[in-house]
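Reminder to self: tokens first, then the designed residues, so the page reads top to bottom the way the pipeline ran.
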């Protein structure tokens, strides 16, 4: 099987940009992204594609880096020069697991989807980005990953390092796991006041999204504070993550990479200062 067998091309002809249905599809995603930085393409995978992707995730689930620690929303260390109530000094228990990208083979379902002709262009056009400001994440541990989470797991409030995050919902937990986000609150600066309101539960700017297996989500997580609610039940939640950035060659910071994947590679140290903006990581 190839990427064309995994993607629902009858419904979403991402390889035929000259079709009117392609333009309509892109325009709808753009409208949703403009509204709150999040868009969902329902049923993006075929039944066979979903089955293959779940099987692949299950086959390497034992390679996931599982961590149980305290993190702030920026994944940085405590800074005692800041006020005690600053968001960067608010730490939360995090229990989660990521299967690093180097566990997914070129001929596997997830990379076949990611490498399918037209996929990158479809994502770029939906995000309304110029070619010179749209690149695949160059991180060999993080360009194509799966977040896998089980009973009691979740992911506390955080910002993403990369500007564009594209996810495929593969398998839901039996209960919990809703995606919650405060849209675009960091678009024009750190916006510490609103960030603080989200963290203390007083913000009126929080949206809740329930994704179904096979749904494709585009999300501007660099600017929108977000979290995954805790899960319950025996079935793990699997979500594939494809990442894009605005600056060519960008990788995760060494500190964050260690937290998420349990190891760093030489490339993370070499490119530690390569960023497209000045936001706290």
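Designed residues (281 positions):
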């Amino acid at each position: 099987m190839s990427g064309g067998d995994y993607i629902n091309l009858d419904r979403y002809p991402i390889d035929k940009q000259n079709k009117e249905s392609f333009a309509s599809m892109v325009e709808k995603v753009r409208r949703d992204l403009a509204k709150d930085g999040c868009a969902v393409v329902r049923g993006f995978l075929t039944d066979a594609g979903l089955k293959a992707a779940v099987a692949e995730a299950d086959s390497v689930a034992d390679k996931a880096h599982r961590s149980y620690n305290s993190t702030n929303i920026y994944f940085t260390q405590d800074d005692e020069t800041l006020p005690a109530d600053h968001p960067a000094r608010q730490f939360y228990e995090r229990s989660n697991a990521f299967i690093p990208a180097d566990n997914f083979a070129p001929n596997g379902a997830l990379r076949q989807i990611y490498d399918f002709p037209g996929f990158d262009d479809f994502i770029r056009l939906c995000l309304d980005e110029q070619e010179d400001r749209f690149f695949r994440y160059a991180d060999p541990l993080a360009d194509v990953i799966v977040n896998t989470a089980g009973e009691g797991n979740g992911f506390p409030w955080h910002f993403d390092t990369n500007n564009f995050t594209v996810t495929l919902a593969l398998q839901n937990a039996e209960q919990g796991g809703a995606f919650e986000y405060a849209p675009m609150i960091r678009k024009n600066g750190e916006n510490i006041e609103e960030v603080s309101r989200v963290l203390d539960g007083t913000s009126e700017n929080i949206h809740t999204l329930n994704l179904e297996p096979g749904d494709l989500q585009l999300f501007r997580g660099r600017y929108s504070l977000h979290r995954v609610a805790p899960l319950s039940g025996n079935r793990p939640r699997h979500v594939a993550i494809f990442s894009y950035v605005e600056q060519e060659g960008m990788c995760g910071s060494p500190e964050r990479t260690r937290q998420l994947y349990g190891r760093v590679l030489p490339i993370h140290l070499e490119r530690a200062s390569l960023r497209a903006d000045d936001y706290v990581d």
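The mean pLDDT is 90.
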